[in-house]
Amino acid sequence: MKDDKKKTALIIIGIVVAVTVIIVGYKIYDRNKSYSAYKVEYTTKTDENVDSQYCKFGQGIIRYNSDGISYVSGGKEVWNHGFEVRNPVIDVCGDYVAIADEGANEINIYGVDGKTYDVSTSYPVRAVEVSKQGVVAGLLGDDKASYIEVIAKDGTQIAIGRTVLEGDGYPISISLSDDAQKVVASYIAVASGEAKTKVVFYNYSEVGKNETDRIVGGFNDFDGTLVPDVEFVNSNTVAAFGDNMITIYTIDETPSVVKKIKIKKEIKSVVYNGKYICLVEEDNDNIKTSLVVYDMKGDKILDKNISFTYTDIKMADESVLFYNDTECRMISVKGVEKFRYKFGSGISSLLPLDDMKLVLSGSGNIQQITLN
Fold first, then answer.
1. 243/247 Cα distance (integer angstroms)
2. Model confidence pLDDT, tens digit, residues 111-135
3. Distances (CA, A) of 187 to 1, 20, 143, 259
4. Angle, vertex CA 211, rays to CA 91 and CA 146, nearest 5
5. Order of strands, sheet of 337-342, starting from the edge strand that comes earlier in the sequence
6. CA separation for the pair 116, 99 (Å, rounded)
7. CA pair distance 360, 327, nearest whole angstrom
8. Which residues make Cβ contacts (< 8 Å) with residue 167, sequence separation at least 6?
């Protein structure tokens, strides 16, 4: 009996190992496979006379313009809501999208299920962030001061902080963690005629309860580099993007530096997801352009020359998508060109849902396509 049980266990282990090898092998094969064609999964007609913008959301895309916002998934318009905005600022996280009219005092929050929440802000909105719970953080301000306000989707104010421009500096970027408990902000202050950046971390959980203004950490060691953008790239990782430097931080309760990456070339574009930070770098003479990829430890995993002239760039799961008004290239983080195509009609937007599925917008249509 013991021998039979041992044989059975060995057979089961062998099957598990074989299945694992097949799955890993297929993933490696798929990651290195190139595609030159696609099939259309669905086509949805749109109004060619309306200039819309698009972003990934849920299992589809958000389409928005000055007149309203809609969610399209699987070839169908799941919901739409009308409004009037002049300069929309928008953010997406999980099952929520938040949009505001820059300079207004209201943020509109929409769930993937179509439910809507309207919250009022204490001051005019400059930028907005949303969490997976529908909590929003607004970068607000008037002529005298700036504010960071955190508001629940039911309108309850969670926190508000004030900075006086002449003393504290001017906040130019904020980012809210997925769990809505942490905020990072980049400030620019002028001292002795020189502009300097500081990056400040706030914690709105029990951790920051006893800290002054909920501040749990701050950094100003940027060697004169301006840092116009800070982002939570995943739940506990922040990237501060400077002119010639990227600093990666980790923050569970308080922040610490993971790595400083000095960039010697000109940064043309930056895209990222929860696993990778991807840069397009150019030589000072603009002769050589490279796609450079870092992991979240700050280690460089790719440096590949590219020659494609693009107007926009997007990040998929394991690939970077470049496109202009007629053509696209998709390059994996391992440096494999996964997809190259010249479309017969103009491209207004091309969004990757993953490494195989894209949403193509242009010429009065929205199409979901799958590489094959």
1. 11
2. 999 999 999 999 999 999 999 999 9
3. 71, 48, 16, 20
4. 45
5. 312-315, 319-323, 327-332, 337-342
6. 11
7. 11
8. none
